[in-house]
Write a structure and sequence with these properties.
With about 230 residues, this protein is of the alpha/beta class. Helices cover about 35% and strands about 15% of the residues. It contains six helices and seven strands, in the order H-H-H-E-H-H-E-E-E-E-H-E-E.
Amino acid sequence: MHGGMAVPAWEILPNCEIGLNAFMVWAIMIFSPPARGKCGRNLPRGLSPCSSRTLHRVGSSNHSDTGSDIMALQDKPQIPMTRAGKARLEDELAELKGARRMEIAEELKEAISHGDLRENAGYDEAKRAQAMLEIRVKEIEADLANSVLIEDMDAATGKVTVGVTVVVQETGGALEESFRIVGKTEADPAQGRISNESPLAQALLGKAAGEVADFTTPMGHTTRFNIVRVEP
């Protein structure tokens, strides 16, 4: 709930929040034997098992940016970002490719020194962490490659575009609700920042104050918002 009006999660989260291929990779790594340690340990910071990316060779120990992987990841629409949001991704990428890779390499070295890899839980966990780290690295690289700065976009049209705040009122309701339309990498529904890829944002984009936005949820419920005003 933001600003007093409850909005279901499916209305504000991107349609492709969970990528099937990435989820299957995660599930296989988590549940495949002979893992003996805790699942999910040593995952890169900010990484969720739900990823909208498809990787051709997940878990490879080769850290080079192969052409097929990069092409598959970068064949995506532009992703709006603020300068601060882009800088945060760049910082995270530098940490993952630097200190975190070295840390996992040391964990692998330590695990290998203990002998038989077939019954080595530490080795299994370190390999999982390495695979998940590489997923996140390629995800960030693809997002940055396809990024476009919100500051460089035209938000002075009076219509709902990425980078503006839109104030709405549900038809028949009394409360006003405000949403800031941002790129998916900076979305935080709890703070009123919704992804431009979400169903709610898709219904609002291109509208102006005084217009209405209708959309149907996956549950078949149709909601109508009156657009009160659009703010830069």
